[in-house]
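User: Here's a structure from my thesis project, written as structure tokens. My advisor, Dr. K., wants to see whether a designed sequence matches the one we expressed. Can you design one independently, without my sequence as a hint?
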């Protein structure tokens, strides 16, 4: 008795359904923890008629793994932000008072401690300083004259914002 193996391999037996390779890849990836691969191949395998139960299992496992990874990353991020905002004494940047006094700039040396210059016994008189008083300026008024090349914006005495413009006139005025 001879058996032709080429015919037996070409026709599947009626008791076994064909296996979808995408579903198998999705399930193996989900079991290995490769949830992006599991989700993608699970979606691809779901649209084929064979192996739909394996594809659904792989999709469920992949989505659960993705949720678990997201939860772990979120909790790690919030714990890091709590550690950064923790006000422990080790992260305090305040200087002790002795160090703070040492770092303050030295005040001017009092004149009594400055040695006199060689050859003089009396201190020189200080030069008189004068302060020029600014000329009182008048606040611009609405429709008052202005020069567009010098002043473009101003504030009136009551706090109104004014702009030097030609609007509605042939001469520049505050408006």
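Assistant: Designed independently from the structure alone:
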């Amino acid at each position: 008795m001879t058996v032709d193996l080429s015919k037996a391999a070409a026709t599947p037996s009626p008791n076994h359904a064909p296996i979808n390779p995408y579903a198998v890849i999705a399930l193996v990836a989900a079991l290995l923890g490769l949830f992006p691969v599991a989700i993608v191949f699970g979606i691809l395998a779901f649209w084929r008629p064979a192996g739909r139960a394996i594809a659904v299992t792989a999709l469920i496992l992949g989505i659960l793994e993705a949720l678990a990874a997201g939860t772990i990353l979120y909790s790690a991020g919030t714990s890091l932000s709590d550690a950064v905002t923790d006000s422990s004494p080790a992260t305090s940047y305040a200087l002790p008072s002795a160090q703070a006094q040492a770092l303050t700039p030295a005040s001017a040396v009092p004149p009594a401690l400055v040695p006199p210059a060689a050859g003089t016994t009396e201190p020189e008189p200080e030069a008189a300083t004068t302060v020029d008083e600014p000329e009182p300026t008048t606040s611009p008024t609405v429709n008052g004259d202005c020069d567009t090349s010098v002043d473009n914006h101003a504030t009136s005495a009551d706090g109104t914002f004014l702009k030097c413009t030609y609007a509605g006139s042939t001469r520049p005025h505050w408006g």
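When you compare it with your expressed construct, this may help: The chain has a mean pLDDT of 75.
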